[in-house]
Specification:
It comes from Pseudomarimonas arenosa. The protein is mainly alpha-helical. It has four helices and six strands; from the N terminus they run H-E-E-E-E-E-E-H-H-H. It is elongated.
Length: 251
């Protein structure tokens, strides 16, 4: 994803979105009905309703805003989320679970971008396994594991809501500015296209002076470019996934 496309997403998308999750009404062979946040396993889907635990969730779960640039499906509320998430600095609490995050805001943001797809994949796998056991008439496993992963998802979502609009534009801009400064310095201090001799001494002297004056600034810009390169690459890799709809891993 190029810089222009990313910038367009950051500026052009709204910071809110509608509930996209669906509640599936499943009917087994005996006619018994139940509702699930994933499609019915190998059964007819009798009815689909808006998911009560979606973005317009009950106050218990707390609504999560959309994030400009991320597809809304990544910000849906997990159906098994039973607790409200509260964060203070690098510590977030959800029910009895505590999640300690990096002290540096940039690290928290990038980690949240990296973690969210993996957490949703784990959540879908646990949901699928639990529903399959239910349909097979087996004793359902404890939902504690699902609830914990749901809490982890919500923690990362809250971090993205807070930090994505705050840090991403500057992160992209800082890296671009560093590269642009290096480019302009190199263009401004071009080596003279004349032989280095007495007749051209003034041109070569001006070139050397230009290089000396720009040396320190260019060095700092190069260092900044190196520091922001990794973060910039992580951001672009994450956005390549998160700007697309969340995959259906429920089957």
């Amino acid at each position: 994803m190029n810089l222009l496309r990313l910038t367009g997403l950051l500026l052009g998308l709204l910071l809110s979105m509608d509930t996209l999750a669906a509640l599936h009404k499943c009917v087994d062979a005996s006619g018994k009905s139940r509702y699930s946040d994933i499609p019915c396993p190998e059964q007819e889907q009798a009815e689909v309703k808006p998911m009560p635990g979606g973005l317009n969730a009950l106050a218990l779960n707390g609504a999560v805003e959309g994030v400009a640039g991320l597809h809304p499906t990544w910000m849906q509320t997990p159906a098994y989320l039973q607790h409200q998430v509260r964060c203070m600095g690098q510590l977030c609490m959800c029910g009895s679970w505590e999640f300690k995050k990096s002290e540096a805001e940039q690290h928290r943001l990038l980690n949240a971008l990296d973690n969210l797809p993996n957490l949703w994949q784990r959540y879908d796998a646990l949901s699928r396994e639990r529903n399959q056991r239910d349909w097979a008439g087996k004793q359902p496993q404890s939902a504690e594991g699902l609830q914990r992963v749901a809490c982890e998802i919500r923690v990362e979502q809250k971090i993205l809501v807070e930090l994505f609009p705050k840090l991403v534009p500057d992160l992209v801009d800082r890296h671009s500015r560093s590269l642009e400064w290096i480019r302009r310095t190199n263009e401004r201090c071009r080596e003279p296209a004349v032989p280095r001799n007495h007749e051209n001494e003034a041109a070569w002297y001006a070139y050397q002076r230009c290089r000396d004056e720009a040396s320190n600034e260019n060095s700092r810009a190069t260092q900044k470019a190196q520091e922001t390169r990794d973060a910039d690459e992580r951001l672009r890799e994450a956005m390549a996934t998160l700007e697309l709809p969340r995959p259906d891993n429920s089957r």
